Amino acid sequence: MTSGQATPAGAAQPPALTIDALGKKCPIPIIMLAAQINDVPRNGIVAVLADDPAAVTDIPAWCRLKSHHHVGSHELPERGWAIHVRRNY
Amino acid sequence: MAYFDAASTEPLHPQAREALIAALDVGWADPARLYGSARRARMLLEQARTEVAEALGVRADEVSFTSSGTQAVHLGVLGTLRGRHRAGRRLVTSAVEHSCVLHAAGIHERDGGSVETVGVGITGAVDPAVFGEAVRAEGTALACLQSANHEVGTLQPVAEVAAACAEAGVPLLVDAAQTAGRMPLPPGWSVLAASAHKWGGPAGVGVLVVRKGTRWRTPLPEDDRERRRVPGFENVPEIVAAAAALRATVAESVMESARLSALVDRVRTEVPRLVPDVEVIGDPIVRAPHIVTFSCLYVEGEALLTELDKAGFSVSSGSSCTASTLRPSHVLEAMGVLTHGNVRVSLPRGTSATDVDRFLTFLPDAVRRIREEAGVKL
To answer: Model-level pTM greater than 0.90?
Structure first.
């Protein structure tokens, strides 16, 4: 469930914003991401913490539809994933 | 009321209903016995077998009736693996097969076999070159590929994959549940599974076809029924009804599949025009005639299904919140498309353009309401 399509820039870049969507079912994590993506500067990273397995598919799919960049997803030590998104515009 | 869930089950065809009622009266006896009523039941059973064989373009002695499409897949997969155990213990399948294929593969793995799962692109189709590569690997006993995907309708490149399988000397099992009766079968397969209630027959009848020359050994305790392929007393009346439905559906399919396909095109074009932030998924052209699936961003699948049900539309969804497992559909996951807000519309025979238009009128408001209630600003 971990996809590491890390880009050189994205891998090193710390998130400018972390959205805690743990315990929330899809589509709520995606609704939260869509509402807050513009709170980071262009090229900034948003990390979404989610434990609904649907988020692992749906956040990259949202990035594709909205022309943002899915930097990568990493499993969290306790439960869930940190899904990193770069604001493209 | 508009029933748009033909991919789950097609309503009973009127000719199947008629055949079923007649066969209940004359086809109830044990077809394995020798007296008059038994001979009548046997004759009905063999007549049904001949009709199904003709509709599928195979020989009657290659056709066995099972108790479901799922059982046909289980017997097809496990029986062919068993028959081919000397060739190897490797099973190749796609990531988007029906769960009954994946469950059979799970048993094979538990018993020490190996399973290679070939991924799909964003339309849900396997790449035949990649699939062929997987089939050519040493020790491959069987390959499995669906004719069309049950959730998104995309047709798989079965003919190309079958050619690769033939070259490698590996039998190909095709799960034709979504297309049997609706469109011609692709050529080149060795084993085929289908389900009568998907083509307008009754529930409780599946079809397993094992082509001549394909090694197959039953994975179940044997008896004398169905040429030792399927144990247990045959359900002759329902098999008769299944054959009647298949014959009728095949005869109607040239016109009806084209008509339904045009309605699907209409849904594919109109939904993104009428509803913002929607993705229509699956191949727009290389697809089954009756299935269209789309996902609405920021919408909970269950909420949308409930709204549609209240308005009399029966549709299905691959979203996790509608599944007992609380996991999103493995098909949508493998395609990498939105799994939430997912709606599958699959049109049964006779679907009217008026019902499709009513759906297209109702859907945009339903989606807007659900988004508003969730506080989504677009």
So the answer is: yes
In angstroms, rounded to a whole number, what is the distance separating the alpha carbons of residues B19 and B22?
5
Distance from CA of A5 to the nearest CA of B (A): 14
Q: How many CA atoms lie within 13 A of A42 on its CB side?
A: 3
Residue of A nearest to B336 (CA): A57
In terms of CA atoms, which chain A residue is nearest residue B328?
Answer: A54
Please say whether the beta carbons of A83 and A14 come within 8 A. no
Phi-psi region of B352 (alpha: psi -120 to 50; beta: other; left: phi over 0): beta
The interface predicted TM-score (ipTM) is: 0.91
Is the Cβ pair A34, B319 closer than 8 Å? no
In this predicted structure, the answer to whether residue B327 has a pLDDT above a threshold of 90 is no
- Confidence band for A7, pLDDT divided at 50, 70 and 90: very low
CB B63 within 8 A of CB B211: no
Helical H runs in B275-352? 301-310, 330-335
Beta strands in A1-89 (DSSP E): 17-21, 45-50, 69-75, 81-86
Mean per-residue pLDDT of chain B: 96
DSSP letter for B226, please.
Answer: G
pLDDT of residue B60: 98
Q: Buried b / exposed e across A18-56, counting CB within 10 Å, b at 16+?
A: ebebbebbbbbbbbbbbeebeebeeebbbbbbbbbbbbb
**Which tokens in the block code for residue A79?**
């439960």
Helix (H) or strand (E) holding B313: strand B313-314
Asked whether residue B183 carries a pLDDT value surpassing 80, the answer given is: yes
Q: What is the structure's pLDDT at A2?
A: 46
Task: Among A28, A37, A52, A58, pick the best mutation site for testing chain B contact (most B Cβ within 10 A).
Answer: A58
Q: Going by C-beta distance under 8 Å and a sequence separation of 6 or more, which residues neighbour residue B235?
A: B65, B67, B204, B205
Q: Which residues of A touch B341 (CB under 8 A)?
A: 27
pLDDT at B152: 97
Q: Is A53 on the interface with B (CB under 8 A)?
A: yes
Exposure b/e, B169-203, CB count within 10 A at least 16 = b: ebbbbbbbbbbbbbbebbebbbbbbbbbbbbbbbb
> B336 — contact with chain A (CB < 8 Å)?
yes
Question: In this structure, what token pair is assigned to residue A37?
Answer: 């993506």
SS3 state of residue B248: helix
**Average pLDDT, stretch B41-55?**
98
- Burial degree of A82 (CB within 10 A; 0-12, 13-18, 19+): middle
